[in-house]
Amino acid sequence: MRRREFNQLPWFFLGLGLANCTHNFQSLRQSSRQSSTFDTAKTLSIWWQQGFYPEETDALRTIIDKWEKNSGIKVQLVIIPQKDILKEIESAIASGNPPDIFYAGVADLTIIPRLAWNNQLVDVSDVIQPLKNWYSEGVLAGVNYQNKVAKKRSYYAVPIMQSAIHIHYWQDILTEIGQAKGSIPRDWQGFWRFWEEVQGQLRQSSYPNMYSIGMPMSLSLDTYNNFEQFLEAYNVKLIDKNGKLRLDDSQVKQGIEAALRQYTRFYINKNVPPDAVDWDNTGNNVTLLSRTSLMTVNHTLSVPGSQRQDPEIYTKQLSTVKWPNKPSGELMRFIIEIKQVILFKASTKQEYAKNFLSYLAQPQNLQAYTEGSQGRYLPVMPKLFEKPFWKNPSDPHISVALQQLQNTRPAYQVLNPAYSEVAAQNVWGEVIRKIVVDNLSIKQATNRAIDKINKIFSNWYKPS
């Protein structure tokens, strides 16, 4: 395996494979238009988001190669960079030419609920049913979507991985400035005050230019994800269990204000790098791994995963800490994202596609793929946690992540598909950036977000 030195920024970007996979995507699109070497009648088209690590894509290719050999069906695999994949799939859908199978790490929050609602996806219940006992109830709930045409819920995606949201930091730097490993408080206010106060110590250390908190304040989906967890911390219940929006509740409005005030104060108090207002989804990773920030919040384990091949960094220098308790004193509950694969209804090869999805979802294949992803995502099948890769109690990152799975809830998109548009338009990222850049007041930002979400829901259910 190639050793990753993500603390060297040029390597980080190369590690994402953006340049290579962009070329790969463009060349494959061109060859598919020319349709020279592929017999399209016997070829399955799969679009897949570029992995963060070579092993992730290699694991997928191995699974595909074995399926091709067993089935006799060829696969045209198109690897697309994270930054391009939603734009490209939306374009393909609009032109009436989507692939047969599609996977993107952000699709569960942004487009899959809408596609299921609009009857554009194949019901894959017959793929899931034989494996139903392998999945947890929470995972199955995460792919059970509403369909306005069928007027019912069903399984419109196949779950392959899951993730919660994690807090990573440099323990070796904390130790250097005199903070013992157990010195981080467990209460909400004490926890965040600790990181704010540590910045003063950094200024007197060998890291005078380091920021103590690497929190995105931009239009990246990471900002959306982080703030959704802050809303959960403040017990803000935007949607009830029946999918009804609760923005007319005064306590909900007060909770949004409290969460916005806490989240944006880090930037306002200059504990966050100034360029956090312009970060993409890799910005927080880059600043932490370059030691520009001391800690960050991230919705996968991609940060420690990038350092897995260096035991010194992985086990001793970099650490993952439990989230603090909620401001109320309750234990934190975590929003779980289910990473999932879909089959488009426009596909003329649904039988082949379902056969592939059934093969992909076999436990041994999902285990190989999650291990290939270096553990940045977690298994969706509880029995897979019994594998040695996940059972190492001395692993300072996975052991913490697994504890978070004990107290979870699904994303709001599962309860009401209209909420996917809140993520797609990044309502939280927009108002957070306006607070820290344009000096929008907390009350103005709250009202702006509420108005926008109400409008999204109103338009969603407007008769066509």
From TrEMBL:
<protein>
    <recommendedName>
        <fullName>Carbohydrate ABC transporter substrate-binding protein</fullName>
    </recommendedName>
</protein>
<dbReference type="InterPro" id="IPR050490">
    <property type="entry name" value="Bact_solute-bd_prot1"/>
</dbReference>
<dbReference type="Pfam" id="PF13416">
    <property type="entry name" value="SBP_bac_8"/>
</dbReference>
<dbReference type="InterPro" id="IPR006059">
    <property type="entry name" value="SBP"/>
</dbReference>
